Each structure stands twice: as C-alpha cells, then as structure tokens.
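Chapter review: from sequence to fold.
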Amino acid sequence: MLQVFDAENCRADIVDIDASFSKLEIVVNDAVKNIIKAVDAGNMIDESTFEDRFGVRLYLSELSTGCKAAICVALMPDQMIDLQECGLNTRDAISMIPAL
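The token string follows.
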C-alpha cells in the first residue's frame, strides 16, 4: 500500500534519486513501461534504453528525475523515497502502479 508522509515527520531512505536509480537492476515489465510512458512520454526498448517523445533512442540514465523516482518506487517498494523534486505527473504515475 502506498503511504505518503510529510517531510517534517519522517526521513526518507532514498533522497538522491539519481544515485539510487543508477544502482537498480532494471527489469522490463508493464509497471516500468507504463511509468516511462506516463511521466516522460517515452517507450522502453530494453533494460538500458528507451525512445523519447521525439523518437530518439536514449539510455535510461537520461530519464527525468521524476521518472527515475517512480521506477524506484515500483522496484523498491520497501524503501521510503523523497519525491520533493518530482512533479504531479510522477505522483499520478506512482498512484497507478499495481499493488501499491
């Protein structure tokens, strides 16, 4: 179940989204594909690349911070992740992840 906490009342396990994302073993699944589509309007190609909204093939490291954060939520559901730098599209994508 997704739980939201006020920053003043709790400390996140993950504050540096980019560092945590770089350590993840990315899996190609519907949740990750849907996050990339919803947040960055892209399409996941494989475990290391995606096609952006302009049709350019890029590495997953070039996803937006919000997209990386949502993928961290999907792949590390037991961790508390600071979403302070993420937009509403990230929040909406996270709310659509199955089993949260």
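Two observations follow directly from the output. DSSP finds four helices and three strands in the chain. The longest helix spans residues 30-40.
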